[in-house]
Amino acid sequence: MSFLCRAKPKFELVLDENGGEPEVVFKINAGEKFKITGYNILYRDEAEGRPQTLEEANIKTDGQSDGATLQEQQQKFVTYLLNNGYPNAKIVTRRALAEFDKAEAEAVFVFESGPRAKFGKPVIEGVESTDPSFISR
What we know:
By secondary structure, the chain is of the alpha+beta class. It has 2 helices and 5 strands; from the N terminus they run E-E-E-H-E-E-H. It has helices at 67-83, 132-135; strands spanning 8-14, 23-29, 35-43, 90-99, 104-112. Strand 1 and strand 2 form a beta hairpin. The longest helix has 17 residues, at 67-83. The model has no long low-confidence stretch (mean pLDDT 88).
């Protein structure tokens, strides 16, 4: 669902001419659609070397405020963490801080990353039918 500015609901009661149940009809003028003007990355734990912005994780944004887009951006960020040494990374929550008079909002993504995993060089022995570069990725 997108963030909408100054929604103005109206309703009317519609009576059934044959004595049936009345209906309430809501009419909503959603107002101007919000634009996401900033993305704030927060962590609930301490660790070194984590990205602090979507840009550091090579995630492009376009200001869309619908929930599906925000969820996709947050999922891309946690995937970046998982693929870059944080095997315990997870999404904690997300929210938007709205400025209703400007129809703007800041997206806030909260994560836990856990400590960065450190591995030594891979040792590959007995490879006969697998390309070693596939294993050492």
